[in-house]
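Consider this today:
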Amino acid sequence: MKDGLRFVDSDMHVQEPGNLFERYLDPAFKSRVTAPVNAEGKFQRYWTIDGIPSSMDGELQQYRKRNSRNVPQASGSTVTSVGQQLSASRSFGTGRLQFAVDRKYDNEAQLMAFPMEGIDIAVLFPTGCLSVMGRNNMDPQLSLALSQAYNNWMFDFTRRSPDQMKWVAMLPLHDVSLACQELKRCVTELDAVGSFIRPNLVNGHYWHSNYWDPLYSLHEELNVAWCFHEGTGAWNSYFNTLYGENRFYRHVASHWVEMQQAMVAQIIGGVFEFFPKLRVGYLEANNSWAPGLLSRIEWDYVNYRDSHAPYLSLTPKEYFQRNCWASVEGTEPEIEATASFIGPENMAISTDYPHFDSSFPFVTTNLLENVSRETAKSILLGGAGLYNFNKDDFLKADTAAAEIKLVP
């Protein structure tokens, strides 16, 4: 808890080990995935898949404006390249994450972060693996093997305290039937509470396309969340074409605009009309874009509904409030105003631990200083609605937190 308030971290991250695929990938596919090694012979995170880097950031960005390697930190220690620090980012030079760096971001470090922010339950997302599915025309069987490897690793990672650490599955989106099979396996056998999906179009399939109907339907049937999560660096992102080398441009645009395009497709395209029990999270993109976009859709609603979307039975805002959650980081000045329009119960919050642009471990403190306590209460608990956590889930998490003995 944070100041007596329940807190579901809707989007906490792990830092996958560089040898994840070496350890977990089906041997039949290992020759197609490689990772660099350091001077000690240890695998480094980020992979080359069929000769193509999993993220295109390194390909486009030719110049670093500031190199963080071996830069002295506030504590007198250093953050290495594994720490992912960039420029004068929020965590650069603070030493806040040194405990995690020292432990190589293991599951002990993950749990050490919980009391620092007052987290009751956290839903874990990847870092390097955010980019693995972010390209078109991947061999579907390779896509499946990569997904299975990550999901099996994540299951093992969360076994340290599964009532506190929940997780969402990576899906082989290059074949919707395989994606359904893997989602079913992860939920029924590995306790996943949803899936993470980049909003970038895969093989040109729009998010309102009937192509995705089996996957939408299965999320409903399994009662798990569909979580859009952008990350910049996807090969199939349109913003590479628009903005090229400048990651600043791409990071601003991709997180907001890709989410907006996904929500427009799902609302106007009737996804929420035809799948009324589907729960969708638009994560790590702030959320002040949501009210303006909903207003824009409603402005055109009276003009185009009868001719272009006669199947819609609710207003855009009604669909959003029934089916959607959009997350914040805690410091945005417009949170209270946004909550007044879309409803704080349709908002969630993420620590974004342990990424360079996170405000960890002050995310919850910032939120409570930024909005009323009543609004903060709903937002801190918003992830429970997205992931369908109930009182029993919190009681189990409380018991686990009380019993677990962390290794310093």
